[in-house]
């Protein structure tokens, strides 16, 4: 919320759908980047719903004790490339 307010952006809150396909399609058709805040338990399966060129690199589970990661999808000509990025903002954030 603070980030959205600072940037003057609207938050669109939805329930986590059982079928990710419509949401993935909306995101893929949008010309704008999106920040999605998602539950750890379902993040890997949500990410795998995108056409990934490196899908085998996506972990099967998000570490429950990690709150300092950003999973990014970078558009490519063939789909998306997945990346795990460390925020490294706070003392104690993991470097790996």
Quick gist of this model?
With 96 residues, the protein is α+β, with helices and mostly antiparallel strands.
Description of the structure:
By secondary structure, this protein is an alpha+beta fold. It has helices at 2-7, 21-29, 43-47; strands spanning 69-76, 79-86. The protein has a two-stranded antiparallel ribbon with strand order 1-2. The mean pLDDT is 86.
Oligomer: single chain
Rg estimate, integer Å: 14 Å
Percentage beta strand: 15-25%
Widest β-sheet, arrangement of strands:
1-2
How many DSSP H or I helices? 3
Largest sheet: 2 strands, antiparallel
Strand tally is 2
Low-confidence stretches: none
The amount of helix comes to 10-25%
The dominant shape is globular
**Mean model confidence by pLDDT:** 86
N-end to C-end Cα span: 27 Å
Write the layout of secondary structure elements.
Layout: H1 2-7, H2 21-29, H3 43-47, E1 69-76, E2 79-86
Antiparallel strand pairs: 1-2
Task: Give the key terms.
alpha+beta, 2 strands, globular
